[in-house]
Write a structure and sequence with these properties.
By secondary structure, this protein is mainly beta. It has seven helices and 35 strands. A five-stranded antiparallel β-sheet has the order 1-8-7-6-5. A four-stranded antiparallel β-sheet has the order 4-3-2-35. A four-stranded antiparallel β-sheet has the order 9-10-11-12, covered by helices on one side. The protein starts with a helix and ends in an 8-residue tail after the last helix.
Amino acid sequence: MKFRGWLACAWLVSGLFGAPSPALSADAGALYKTHCAACHGENRLGGIGPALLPENLERLRRPEALKVILEGRVATQMQGFGDRLTREEAQQLAELIYTDVRPAPEWGETLIRQSQIVSPEAKNLPAKPGPGLKGADPLNLFIVVETGDHHVSVLDGDKFERLYRFPSRYALHGGPKFSPDGRFVYFASRDGWITKFDIYNLTVVAEIRAGLNTRNAAVSADGKWVMVANYLPHSLVLLDAENLDLVKIIPTLNAAGDKTSRVSAVYDAAPRKSFVAALKDVPEAWEISYDPNAEPVAEGLVHDYQYKEGAFKPGQFNPKRTLLKDYLDDFYFTQDYAFILGSSRSASKGQVIYLDGRKKIADLDLPGMPHLGSGITWQWKDPSGKERTVMASPNLNEGLITVIDLKTYENIKQIKTLGPGFFLRSHENSRYAFTDSMMSKENRHILQVIDKQKLEVVAQIRAEPGQTLAHVEFTRDGRYALASLWEMDGALIVIDAETLKEIKRIPAKKPVGKYNVWNKITRSEGTSH
């Protein structure tokens, strides 16, 4: 079965997407359809933008929601509509999104299982690179997500030639994940579809709809499991990686059991044999082991930990909670995966969380709105010649890069940039790190090049004013960097990572991200994990 045919098999359930309450203003419904539905879904269940339902808006007060509608929201694709809507019209929309959708949307075990599509031919394909790769190094391929027309490209990282291009699900999340050997790549779409693709044989293996509005997915280091983080329903969904069979739905209830939460993100913590998830609407971080020999998890009253007397659950696939005082909208692992560095939109400081101790151990001095999920590490020599491991993060609200000492968690330097940025990328073989200013109206066409030892901007790479130039990923050896010209008629721009000269342009339809197989499966220090 070809991928295009699979797109026509999208799962539809009669009555799932209900109409708004009859008490709502017809004008509000019309306004929503005109201005909001394209991003947030016809029934407010989410699309490119998040679901607009009361249970997803608990952290956004109604006056703030009105302000977002009129002025937009920093560090998102949400534009302001103050030039198209009167204040009264915006107020109608603000009231609408805090009303329930009836009937309430559901997506549970039965519907998830029924949505699964498995290719019967895929499991018989050879476990070696096929002719479609034309002899390219399978570990130096790039997987390119092109959201302009919802396609994915497979790119030869040596010849910089497109080997294959296929249609994807709607609005893929920018960060696909790979199996440990680099043969398979897993995609998550904003509307909940998880797709497993065989890179060696250039074919889709399986698909399943794990939610209605999905944040991201993670693949375990042993290649056996896929964990899906959902905004709607409020859940984590565990899949068997082979055919994406449903294994378990984990409702994201807080410790008290009286509130549910969206999931900010879930990532694999390879050395720990676990997934780590942050909850967006309750201040908790979860660690969920996939190790069959994991220690039992204590939930509730315990009489004796040594003899496991009390309320214990099996250690595998049950969350261990870290209770916090603030939310985690974003987080980053230290190199040994013993700690996570987290931040929230509402806090003035970040926090360092010790996973084994299940507690916060330090604050981080992080101005603005750091994008820790895009942080990178490297070895830096201080003025005395001492080598230190540092982490650097871009900022979604201010023009700066924060450099942090990972031993003391103190700031080493704030590197000024041309505007708020989303991505920071490098490679262990490169002396440079690249960052964008894509949140800036004036300077989003400029990439800035940072010398990792000098800790300063030393060069710029420019597109045409008004365009967006962002998201760099290096080749396997670090010799070249590929940047995205983030336009409908955009391109992948190949840059010599030493001379910083442009080598080649490969046309692409809004290439929001590109991911080198080797860098991802080896967890290169210069890219996100």
